[in-house]
Design a protein that fits this description.
By secondary structure, the chain is an all-alpha fold. It is built from six helices and no strands. Helix 2 packs antiparallel against helix 3, helix 2 runs antiparallel to helix 5 and helix 3 packs antiparallel against helix 6. The chain is elongated, with a radius of gyration of 18 Å.
């Protein structure tokens, strides 16, 4: 049996709870570093992590409701609703990040502290990789909510890697502050595209369509 088809060790509820705990542990550090370092890309990561935490908390409730009566024809509907809420939050975060990044690029990006950017992004990258491993590679096959959580986690890991590179460059050069809003725009593109795709699939699921969870 391949790793992609092996049943997960933990239940959905337990895996979601673990990932929620990891996200909540990150938020305070991201906000603190984002404000003190003056980094819009780190603040964008904080907003995305907060949005993910809200979706994870709602997801835990949806999974509990579904598991009460798995044979009910509408048993998976709460999961699609949560996925749609998650998508809307992601799109809202995208709009806010794009707005702030464009303002900074137009008016000239203020000085940014690259070292704390790099450190918090390295920690975020490690946490998100851990979260993806907890969810398991087969999560995208389970249902639309588990797929959305896995996509969010992997996107966050990629975004953290980008912020890590930008923070390191800013730290080593003592300049190139424009990299911060540019990376924020890239992060927004990742968040926004994931949000749009997820919204389309969630709406289709709410309308009763069969969703191909391997199409990602």
């Amino acid at each position: 049996m391949s790793a992609d088809t092996r049943p997960p060790r933990f239940s959905q509820s337990r895996r979601l709870a673990i990932v929620l705990g990891l996200n909540l542990a990150l938020i305070g550090g991201l906000v603190t570093v984002g404000v003190t370092a003056g980094s819009v890309s780190v603040l964008a990561a904080a907003g995305d992590t907060l949005a993910d935490s809200v979706a994870l908390a709602l997801g835990l409730i949806a999974v509990a409701l579904r598991d009460r009566n798995t044979e009910h024809p509408q048993a998976s509907k709460p999961l699609a609703i949560v996925a749609l809420i998650n998508a809307m939050i992601l799109i809202a975060v995208t709009i806010g990040v794009v707005t702030e990044a464009i303002v900074r690029l137009r008016e000239g990006s203020p000085a940014v502290l690259g070292f704390p950017m790099a450190i918090v992004s390295l920690i975020t990258l490690a946490v998100m990789i851990t979260g993806a491993l907890v969810l398991g590679v087969s999560a995208h096959r389970e249902d639309i909510h588990m797929k959305s959580v896995l996509i969010d986690t992997l996107a966050d890991a990629a975004a953290a890697a980008g912020v890590l590179v930008a923070g390191t460059i800013i730290w080593l050069t003592g300049g190139l502050y424009w990299l911060d809003p540019v990376i924020a725009l890239v992060l927004a593109a990742v968040i926004g595209s994931a949000g749009i795709r997820l919204a389309i699939q969630a709406i289709a699921a709410l309308r009763g369509a069969d969703i191909d969870f391997d199409n990602h």
